[in-house]
Design brief:
Number of strands: 5
Structural class: alpha+beta
Strand content: 25-35%
InterPro entries: Ubiquitin-like_dom, Ubiquitin-like_domsf
GO cellular component, one term: cytoplasm
Order of helices and strands: HEEHEEE
Largest sheet: 5 strands, mixed
Protein name: TINCR ubiquitin domain containing
Length: 87
C-alpha cells in the first residue's frame, strides 16, 4: 500500500501562487511534491520573471533552493513570497 501511495505522489500536482512583492504580482505555478525551489525558479524564468538575488518565504520562514515542495509543506492554494535579498 505504501508503494502505491509513493507511486501516486508523482502524479500529484499543486496549484500555488508566487507573490512578487517588488512588482506587486501574483503568478500561478503548477508544481509536484518532488519539485525543488530551484525548479520553481526555472518555471518563473520560463514566464519571464527573474528570481536572481531573491529569496522565497513561506509562513514567515526563509526557504532554501534545495528544499522540495513536500519539505516545506506546500499544499494546493499555497502562496510563496519572493522578495529581494537585503544584501
Amino acid at each position: 500500500m505504501e508503494g502505491l501511495r509513493r507511486g501516486l505522489s508523482r502524479w500529484k500536482r499543486y496549484h500555488i501562487k508566487v507573490h512578487l512583492a517588488d512588482e506587486a504580482l501574483l503568478l500561478p505555478l503548477t508544481v509536484r511534491p518532488r519539485d525543488t525551489l530551484s525548479d520553481l525558479r526555472a518555471q518563473l524564468v520560463g514566464q519571464g520573471v527573474s528570481s536572481w538575488k531573491r529569496t522565497f518565504y513561506y509562513n514567515a520562514r526563509r526557504l532554501d533552493d534545495h528544499q522540495t515542495v513536500r519539505d516545506v509543506h506546500l499544499q494546493d492554494g499555497s502562496v510563496l513570497l519572493l522578495v529581494s535579498d537585503p544584501r
